[in-house]
Batch of 4 targets.
Target 1
Amino acid sequence: MSKTVLTLLIFSTLLLAACGGAKGTPGTQPPAESGNLTQLNDLNLRENHLEALPPEIGKLILLTGLDLSENNLSVLPPEIGELTSLSYLHATGNNLSSIPQGIGNLTSLTELYLDGNNLGDLPPEIGKLVDLNLLFLNDNSLSELPPEIGNLTDLILLYLSKNNLSSLPPETSNLVNLSELWLDGNPITSLPPEVCANLSGLVFPDSLCQT
């Protein structure tokens, strides 16, 4: 990306996927000038070798879609919480070890993809994303979920496969609109009885709810 982005103020979609070479090569970040693209609705930075995002990302307040998948990001800047119009955020396949508390400001999100990272926990603020329908957290290092996960009552799909979960909070039983709850690849041997009572038939593997 060059400073020519300064002239792109009327763009609604900017596609810069796979512009940076192979993943794992020395990382860069989008220039600060990208914050001047204030009319953007959709920003795709997939498959570059980005290691950081500039704070100016928070100026893109009209963004409804942001794809950061398959980069080398280890953190998301706090300013990500200023993108309150986002309806989907894709950050699959990075090196994220944590999520900023500001994620809770993104109350318009319906799809959140955080699979394939190094997340060890989630902030309680995740429970503020009450419009979420899809939440992908598989292939991380999660050892527990916050009780606030039970606030996400619009969830339809919840993917938690291949983590380090040994149990789920009882509040998970509140997710009555789920159609699929994937838990394979975790050291879970049983689930809280209220989870099995409310979500029976939706849990994979189903042996977790068999007495």
Target 2
Amino acid sequence: MTDDLVERQTLATNISRALIKKWWTPAELARQSGLTRDRLSSFVRREATPTAEELQALAKALDVEAAALLAPVDPSPPDPIGDLLAKERLAELNRLQDDFEAGKITNAQMVEAMDAWEKTRRN
């Protein structure tokens, strides 16, 4: 693998792990960082490398050092079952947000779903 591809893969993994840790959707990270969802998605899909300013914006939004987003990833997560459950919950939250933005569910339904999701987060 080229250095650029390794860097992209590392960044994508670190962003994904940070999202799970903060219980954020990619849309929330895009809002917090000031990046577009498409631009953020290009990093997660390993299609692009962020500029220094974009990396700094991501780091600030995630409350980490920019270097931490490019730091090598420990290949074995400390809690693989917990990580899997968190990823499943995050995927469900993404689906809910997409449904809300598409007008498939009402604001009240979104609030109810978010409340239920918050309860599972605490467990």
Target 3
Amino acid sequence: MMLRTTTCSVVSAAAVMLLAAGAMAQLGPVPVPPANQITEAKRVLGKALFWDEQLSSDNTMACGTCHTTRGGSDLRNARMAGVDGVPNTADDVFGSPGMNLADSANNFKPDAVFGFGKQITGRNSMSFLMAAYAPQTFWDGRGTSRFVDPVTGQQVIANGGGLESQAAGPPTNDTEMAHEQRNWGEITVKLADSRPLAAANAIPADVAAVLTNTTKYPALFAAAFGTPTITASRVAMAIATYERTTIPNDTPWDRFIAGQQNALTQGQIAGLQTFNANCAVCHVTTNGQFTGNGFRNVGLRPPAEDLGFQLTTGNANDRGKFKVPSLRNVGLRTRLMHNGQFVSVANTTAIQAAVRFYVRAPGAAPQFPDNRDPAMNAINFPPQAEPGLVDFLTNGLTDARVANQTFPFDQPSLASQRASARPTILPGGTPGTGGVVPQVLAVDPSFVGNDDFRIGVTGGLGGATARVLVSMDPPVNGRLMTGTESEFMTLGGTGSGNGFGTLRSPIGANGVLNGRVMFYQWIITDASAAGGESRSNIARAAFFCGGIGCPPSCRGDFNLDGTVDPDDLSDFIGAFFTIPQVALADFNGDGAVDPDDLADFIGAFFGGCSN
């Protein structure tokens, strides 16, 4: 490498010294398995899948929910009790909020730890931005280099498929993205009928350009793989392809070792020297990755709390070992370590807390000796070296494109990130047995085309019969006064305040629904309640179309299930001649139900979705 040494400054002299030592190398090409070559069509498909919340069973979780492009990991960490089962103690874990637990039919059910709230994963999410270089993925290495189709059990990639192995896991994990017993057959059928990124806004330009020509996943799979068939392996390979194109290789450090001697400040160069002398054994710089992709026990916590790599290898010598992550963009992460132990508080950043842990500074978090890596004993630098090291890690390894979320690190606005995309809870309700007011449970995004939109209830009388009143009219004094009632159902649970249930209320793929506001209130048979019925508070859902736009407007789709068929005609005739449903039959909206409504509906019915 030719070095420019014309500027005789302390900075350039240090730069020459570091570069001449040969201790660092630029980031090499991304390894790509022959069985999954990168193509543009596959990359765009993978990007859509990575950011599509419809990959989860309740449409609330995308891969990118826990792995944002701003640092590559989760920004929403939540605390959960560790192995002692006691919250707010030293063994607590800061993981990612995932799914509300649901049974195999995707009905809400209570979790032993989290109740009806979101479950929390047992580890802090890893950054995906440098995972393309890793032979094995996940903190414990269970994402193996050999990728096996999760449905057929056949080998798809013999070597280099760590990303594919990782991508195939979360969609069937009932904490992360799935209801209980979800399988890939359900997932592929759902994707085949889904409009890509239907719940997202601000869709990145490269994906939006493709979606102007098609709004169905089978067409995207055909472009990427030659046929429209959607399989588990193809989903994993597309996501892995996208991840292999998100490489943060334009940091000040990259420019520095390329010969731009002022890319790092003098303090950051001093920090780099400290880093090379103390940290590079594990966070290797000779490959430019800032990790050797190995697994080590740094003594963060007793191995009995989480065996880590031993869970994958079965070898007791691997107890407490975890994957050494890349430190690229570490300054953008809100929590560090597999358990999220280090976080910015008061006047100490997460990076400072981690640095002080490694050097065993006074007041730092303790190290636990069981199976601790011998390399930990070699870390030693004076307190005055800390500011430069922290500055280098925080700023010298940050790619501005990642920090600013610009291409290829751009991402859409997810429904889970927008309050307007989710139902809101309004006051109301009347108490039942034990004076408990049932609580409505509404977490699913209300996008047009959400066939699995759910409204749940908790806190009712267990075993009681219940129904849901659905109305377009706002509540009056905490009660819905008009609307359509669902069929009766029996609540799960036993006793006062323990009853729970789920109503499935599909939002048809019909553009006429865009902007419609609906209200939901549970009515529970309860002899101890006033009038023999308790009522929940109220959920308000505003139906919306995402950035991809609305499905066709089908006025002939009377039952709003997304298709125009004989059921619509039958339902309209029933409403037209049934007194309680006359409002529904006012098809032309003139305030009266008369033959004009029947004529207008017949015209819409035979017009399909073009009117």
Target 4
Amino acid sequence: MSTSEFIWQPNEKYRQCRVSDFMHVHNISDWQRLIKKSSDDIEWFWSTFSQYAGMQWYKNYETLLSLPLSNQAPPHQPPDFAWAQWFVGGKINIAANCLDWHQVKGKRAGVRESVGKDHPAILWENESGDSRQLTYGQLNDMSGKIARYLKELSVKPKDAVGIYMPMVPEVVAVLFACWKIGAVAVPIFSGFGAEAVVSRLIDSQIKILFTADGGRRRGQLIPIKSDVDQAAKQLPSLKKVIVLEHCQNKIAWHEERDVWFHDALKTLVPLDTVEDLPAEHPSLYLYTSGTTAKPKGTIHTHAGALFQVAKELGFAFDVKSEDKFFWLTDIGWMMGPWEMIGVTFWGGTMVIFEGAPNYPDINRLWRLLEQQRISIFGISPTVIRLLKASAESSPENYNLQNIRLLGSTGEAWDPESYNWFFQRVGASRCPIINISGGTEILGCLLMPLPIMPLKVCSLGAPALAMDIDVFDETGKSVADSIGHLVCKKPAPSMTKGFLNDRERYIETYFKRFPGVWYHGDWAKKDQDGSWFLFGRSDDTIKVAGKRIGPAEIESVLIEHPQVSEAAAIGIPHKIKGEALICFVVLVSGLKQDSEYTSKLSSELREFIAKRMGAILRPEAVHIITSLPKTRSGKIVRAAIKRKYLGEPLGDISSVENPESLV
């Protein structure tokens, strides 16, 4: 199927969604006009969205957006855009909007109606099928008790609290407890080892760390607490470790430092949410992957995180109180806090899963979708490629009729995998809300709406109020041509610099095109107004003067019937400048003796040459058993390249399967 054809058109069911209602309220006739109006006048959008969504302010803001003069915003006169201040004078709290609001059923503000304390907030399930549920009342009660305990430990507003836990209901409660008292939550992927934990927590100077005795993945125990014990030796600011009894495994215990989670809370009365937090009070320190350098700590505010995420889950995913929303994620990936804020804001039910998507068998996720009657399901393209690679993966054998929206993010799609997801999981009736943005903005730059037609691999259009464009090398806007994805105006959720490294923030996002946010992705808007991504621009390979993104090569390789996954890198070449090297993982069940793999490698080299031109024939195609990936499913091409060239691997703490680089 061609990527130039629309494969999904919204019917009347999808046109009766929240973003359509917003357009009706503001007399906007179509989604193109909505995007243009929101981009042209971002202050109009965020002001009207606050009223429409029923944001609960303790004190309303005086100035919606303030752009300080560049000579007032260190360091070295960066663009005023970089240090934009939002909702100046206002006071707001994420927890108040997402938990407190729902304790009494039937309250209305804007279009929002509170669901009441008995409405399910969280459904948890693990690999083995064990499950638990928390209502909005139970979640708020647990969060309030944790908040009380943090106050007793003298945690003050802006103090950092680490969260190094598996995906269990308590992790959501801890997150909201931090916000209730104005502490800054620092969520960390529970699969990280001690050194990765140290690099993130020492940077944020945490005083308190929440963890668990262990976690489980692929039926195996993950000894989380032992990593904490090792990391604690290098964390001088750490005073207390609160341990959830989850796996009942044997652990070391430090009497002066360690406290059992259940012991800490058993006699406490829930604490009320604080009301005096400024709109730009920090809520989260989220760390990027850090595979190329020291991990970057992004800084997100209460108002910024709340507004951006509520917009996306309200308008792109149309979350309603009757929805069960499941995104395969971890607390350490931005999609974890993202779904926890957005689903609870709109009163839906989030489903969280602890474990691997293909364990104990390849159909584990499809059973979960059927049994929990999921209505909105999000996943990364990489995981779909993993599930698609097995002939035994059979989503069509499960009742997935409750799904009305599919979601994806994390990496560029290839057409074959996209169509498999669309046809086999969504039965060709559900749009794929394929979003892209980043940890740095806690949200989307590109974002389909359920009222727009979609093409294969498309990301729809610019996200509302984000003013997105594609620039060529000179900074000129281009259409129907691949260029650099940029954002020309500020957004409330953009990071407030990098923690302890403001200079690096300016260098990363504002040096390439002064005054404009440079995101580092290759993008294109076609003649029909559909937007596409082609991978990271810093991954670009230049062979004999021809620039090519690795995702383009990888998409072709994945079309070969024997290939399930692929990665492409460029290495120095005396004549061509760079030469193309490819790595592929074969579909399961294929023999991999040396004679077969040698023949297939040659076949794949010619397959690329035939499809992409002889100049792009790879120097080599290596058949391997697995590709190194982050927890969010991104292939770590930089680490592959360093390994191939015999260079030091650097920080690979975010790589979920580091053994693939051995």
